[in-house]
Structures are given as C-alpha cells and as structure tokens.
C-alpha cells in the first residue's frame, strides 16, 4: 500500500461555507469569469461551467489545467472545493499542504470579492479531504491507516495540538476521504498563516 499511496496525486479538499444560503451559486459565475480575465490565481484558468441544476452536485465549476475549483453543493452543504488533476511535485505531505493552500487562498479571494459583498465566509474548522483514485486509495481501513500519518502532519500544521474529530465513509463503494472538524473556530486567513 505505501508504495502506491506515495504516488497519490488526484486529491481534493473542500472548505465549507459558513452560511450556504447567503449567496446563490449562480452569483459565482461572473466572479469566476473575472478570475480568468485577471488571472486571479496561479493556475491556467480555462472556463466556467454551471451545474447548479444537479442536486448535490458540483455547482459552479472553474476549470483550470491543473485542477478544478467548484462551489460544491455535495451532501446539501455549500463549500469551495478544489480537486487536483495534474501531478504535483513533492512528497504526499508537501502535496497535501499545497492543495490546502490552494483552496484556502481561493476561499480568501471569495471572502474579499466586492461583487459578493462580504456574504461569503468559510468555516475553516470544517474540511473534507478526499482521493479520487480508487486504485491507489481504495476506501478501506488499510488506506486510512496508511494515510493517517500524512493527515496528522497536515492537521498539526493547521490546528496545532487541538484534538480534531475525523470521520470517514465506511461504505467501500464511496471514494476514500475524511471529514475533519476542529474544536475551535478558525478563519481561512489564520490557516494560511499557519501553513506558511
């Protein structure tokens, strides 16, 4: 497991909106189009797709060469998700930190977006981390045991020695992932500072 797990690249992270009803998903479409025009993030941004009509779906997707950003509506909970598609450098710990930094920077941009008028805030104490690679990361206890040291290293950077609650789907048909709840509120700006 450890050899293939070290090569895990297709990973994603979601940070949840504090109020999933304050902004309608379609309001992000012009925002993401402006991101493309302004090159607001350090990725090759390509297009915007609207999947708001899909129940519990990807919502509004900002397609980039490296990965996809989305105002995700999965499980009825709005949040900002980023899913890495292209290989990234470094070991798994480095890739997880980079993924987290990418999501948090984008979340910070949305919180500061004038067109959204301060109506978007993210709960940085609630994260969902997942792998979209059933070969390297099947949803099994062995995967969780192999992943745990990497997850622990990331959580230590984000939340220090706070005791986070970690849950995961137990149905083997689901993709491997974990839901993280920190015991104290945090902002995306605070977590970015802790990541360095």
Describe, in plain words, how this protein is organized in 3D.
- With 196 residues, the chain is an alpha+beta fold.
- It is 33% helix and 26% strand.
- The chain has helices at residues 2-6, 28-38, 92-112, 141-159, 188-195, and strands at residues 11-17, 45-51, 59-64, 67-72, 79-84, 122-131, 165-167, 177-181.
- Strands 2-3-4-5-1-6-8-7 form an eight-stranded antiparallel sheet, with helices on one face.
- Helix 3 packs antiparallel against helix 5.
Rounded to the nearest angstrom, the radius of gyration is 16 Å
Query: How would you sum up the global shape?
Result: globular
Give the % helix.
Answer: 25-40%
Number of strands: 8
List its salient traits.
196 residues, 8-stranded antiparallel beta sheet, 8 strands, 33% helix, globular
Summed up, what is this model?
Helices cover 33% and strands 26% of the residues.
């Amino acid at each position: 497991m450890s050899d293939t797990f070290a090569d895990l690249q297709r990973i994603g992270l979601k940070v949840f909106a504090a109020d999933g009803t304050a902004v309608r998903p379609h309001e992000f479409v012009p925002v993401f189009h402006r991101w493309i025009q302004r090159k607001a993030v350090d990725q090759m941004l390509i297009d915007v797709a609207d999947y708001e009509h899909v129940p519990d779906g990807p919502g509004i997707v900002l397609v980039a060469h490296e990965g996809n950003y989305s105002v995700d509506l999965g499980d009825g909970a709005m949040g900002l998700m980023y899913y890495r598609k292209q290989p990234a450098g470094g070991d798994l710990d480095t890739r997880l930190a980079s993924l987290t930094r990418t999501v948090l920077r984008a979340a910070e941009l949305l919180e500061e977006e004038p067109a959204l008028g301060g109506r978007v805030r993210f709960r940085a104490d609630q994260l969902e981390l997942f792998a979209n690679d059933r070969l390297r990361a099947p949803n099994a206890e062995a995967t969780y045991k192999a992943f745990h040291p990497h997850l622990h290293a990331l959580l230590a950077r984000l939340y220090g020695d706070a005791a986070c609650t970690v849950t995961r789907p137990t149905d083997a048909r689901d993709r491997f992932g974990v839901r993280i709840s920190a015991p104290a509120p945090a902002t995306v700006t605070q977590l970015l500072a802790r990541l360095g």
